[in-house]
Amino acid sequence: MKKLSVIFCLLLFFNNTNVSAKSMDKQTVLAALTLNIARFTGWPEGVFDWNGPSIKLCIIGDNVVQESFAGMENQTINGKGVQILNRSRLRNLSQCQLLYISGLERNILLQVLFDLKGQPVLTVGEDLAFIQAGGMISLEKIDGKMQLNINLPIVKQSDLVMSSRILKLAKIFDYRHPKK
Description:
Elements: H1 2-14, H2 26-39, E1 41-42, H3 47-51, E2 55-60, H4 63-70, E3 76-77, E4 80-86, E5 98-101, H5 106-115, E6 122-125, H6 128-132, E7 137-142, E8 145-151, H7 152-157, E9 161-162, H8 164-169, E10 171-173
Parallel strand pairs: 2-4, 2-5, 5-6, 6-7, 8-10
Antiparallel strand pairs: 1-9, 3-4, 7-8
Helix pairs in contact: 2-4
């Protein structure tokens, strides 16, 4: 039943109907969608053996972005607790399973994504430029609706698996990592 409600929530946000996220705070919506997308993602076997029993969700962004994720520490993703880690310093990001990035300058973003290349870290950002820089997933508001963009080759390169349910809702891109 819980999976059905998550699917319904995703359908509401990504459907081409007139459902709008105007009345909801943008960052809160993005935070909730990030967790729901992670519920439809599979990580390679053994990732959680060496990284502990919880999913480490790392946040790079300003206070508004960090606060939008603050209440999600009690959530679970695929039976694992969520541990929220705010990262003001861009170190040890490979210890995260889920990385939400907001507001990085392009050259720093390129370096972060290049450093994570091939590692099982699901990267989520807020616009198409994030996908073009080598990010995996972007959530952007277009005409009052949330658009889910997935850079499928980068997801596969990191040995992550996206559910076909989420892929049906997404616009699929094929951007490789830009050269440094």
